[in-house]
Structures are given as C-alpha cells and as structure tokens.
Amino acid sequence: MKDKAAELAVVSNKSFEASTAVNLHHYDISSALQTTLEFNELIAIFCNKIQATLPHNSVEYVNDEFSLAFKRGIVGRHSCNYALKVEEQQLGELKLTRSQRFSKDELKMLESLLCCLIYPLRNATLFQQALQMAYTDPLTKTNNRTAFNDALLREISRSKRGNQSLSLIFVDVDHFKSINDEYGHDCGDLALASVASWVKDSVRGCDTVFRYGGEEFVILLADTHQTDAAIIAERVRSSIESHTLAYGMDVLNITASLGVSSLREDDSTESFVKRADAAMYTAKQEGRNRVCLG
User: Fold this and answer.
1) Distance of CA 288 to the CA centre of its chain
2) Boundaries of CATH 3.30.450.40 in the chain?
3) What is the predicted pLDDT for the residue at 248?
4) Cβ-based neighbour number of residue 214 at 10 Å
5) In this predicted model, what pLDDT tens digit does every residue of 195-215 receive, in sequence order?
6) Where in the chain is the domain with CATH 3.30.70.270?
7) Which InterPro entries match (predicted)?
8) pLDDT in tens, 69-79
9) Count of alpha carbons within 13 angstroms of residue 282, beta-carbon side
C-alpha cells in the first residue's frame, strides 16, 4: 500500500537540538551524518543506522533540484514517504518500503530519527548549490571553463584506465564580433545564450557542454570515437544553422564552425585540446559553418 508523502519540517535549531539529546542512538546517527556532504552517502548512512530500529527492505531518495534519484534494495508492498524541508527549503523526498505495514509507533520513531537527517541534508544542499554557482556560466547556463578543466582531467584518466574512447568538439560562433558591433552586446548575449541552448538540445544526455570562453563552447563526449563525434558535431552545426534569432525588428541567421578531436594514446591534456581547437580554426579558414577533424 502506498501512502501519500508526509511532510516533515524542522523549523528551528532548538527543536533539532532537543531531538538529538533524547538518546544516544540519535547522537550516534547525527555524528555519522557529519562525515559527508554527498546526498547518496547521507541517505545510505542514515538507512544503515536505523535498520535495526526500523527494519526496511528498500529506500528511495529523490531530489528534483539536483536531478538526483537514489535507490537501494527490493521494493516492498508497504511504504512510508516523507517530503523533507527546513525553513521552507525543500530537501527532497525519502521513501522506505517493506513487506509488512509500518506501525504508528514505528512511524513516530522514524519521524524522530529523521530530525537527525534534516540539517545534514541542508548542509549538502548548500554545498551543492555553491558548487553549481562556481561551475556554471551565468549567461549561458552551461558549465564553465573551470568545470571543463576538472572534467577533462577526470575523463582522460578514466579513458586511459579503462581503455575507452574520448572525444572533444570545439564550437565557435561565426562572425560574433559583427553581431556585437552591429546590434550591441545585449544582442550578443542573447545570441550566446541561444546557441548554448541549441547545442545542449543537439547532444546526447551523456555529453557535457561547457562555455570555453567568449563565443566558444566545447562538448566533452565520453566513450565516443571520432566518427561518432563527427556525426554529433554535424548535428550541432545543422541545428545552429537551422535556427533564426529575432532581435527587435531584425532576424539574425547564426552559424558556427566546429573542430573535432579524439584522444590518442600519446596525448597530453594540452595536445588533445589543441588538436580540436586547431580543427575548429581550420573550419573557419575553409569558409566557416562546417565541421573539421583534427
């Protein structure tokens, strides 16, 4: 039987402190939850700690703000759901299931124990929000150059360790300076934000788009050979070309030049990036609005 999610809110530090002082079990859970700022780890620790007190077969935690869905165990017939929040800040929804119905006393105990989880979840939320701000370009809502540098090192290491392919696509908006000069920087900003949206709509869910700088974007494609990367690059180029941008009474047709490279065995980070960048400049020199391989 599925029950509607209950709403659990802790409205003050005082009530939280009172709940942790009730017994040592609460203190033990609270102490364990101070060891991480990762949502998945917090939920796993919490459920491990309460398993003896409140046996359950599965747990599911969903946090829409961070597109997170954590699941563990085998789903049972009976469930209890809690929408977690503190001081009007949404912290996600927790669901426990098992084959036997949860008693009123067990639910009361669970609600008491959940008070230990609320503030660690809020800390994790604040941490993740800060990371998002640090790694996101505010204009285009894509990942920024810092995020790219970190992701590139991680993906190169993973690719070489697992002997998997890895590709890059550099995307540069054609004649962007002319857009700024003729229509102004507000139009230039609109053009960049629009191109970023078109690029994101053209790639796969597993691909990551970054604003590399100025009017230049880069797409990181894990486990992708150059042939497949070139196909994706052509899809991105075609998408940009097929869109028009209305600015005031004017209609702008925007195109982009793209360069593709795939990781080689002897590549360094610099050579991998430089080859894609050079291929993009070759596309510029050959007439723009095209894809070149590096």
Assistant:
1) 32
2) 6-135
3) 86
4) 12
5) 999 999 999 999 999 999 999
6) 145-293
7) Diguanylate_Cyclase, GGDEF_dom, Nucleotide_cyclase, Rev_trsase/Diguanyl_cyclase
8) 999 999 999 99
9) 13
pLDDT of 138 reads: 92
Instruction: For residues 39-46, give the mean pLDDT.
Output: 94
Q: Kindly report, residue by residue over 50-93, the tens digit of the pLDDT.
A: 999 899 999 999 998 888 899 999 999 999 999 998 888 899 99
Query: Is residue 20 very low, low, confident or very high in pLDDT (cuts 50, 70, 90)?
Result: very low
Q: Which whole number is the average pLDDT over 126-134?
A: 87
Tokens coding 57: 């077969």
Give the right CATH number for 6-135 from 3.40.630.30, 2.140.10.30, 3.30.450.40, 3.60.40.10.
3.30.450.40
225 vs 15, 19, 153, 161, 174, CA distance in Å?
55, 55, 18, 16, 26
Active site residue 215: yes
Residue 281 burial class via C-beta count within 10 angstroms: exposed 0-12, middle 13-18, buried 19 and up: middle
Rounded Cα–Cα distance for residues 171 and 218 (Å): 6
Instruction: Indicate whether 163 pLDDT > 80.
Output: yes
User: Which of these, 171, 266, 177, lies nearest to 210 by C-alpha position?
Assistant: 171
| Given 215, 216, 241, 286, the catalytic residue | 215
Of the candidates 133, 196, 140, 174, which has an alpha carbon nearest to the alpha carbon of residue 286? 174
Rounded Cα–Cα distance for residues 133 and 125 (Å): 12
In whole angstroms, give the CA distance from residue 174 to residue 258: 10
pTM: 0.68
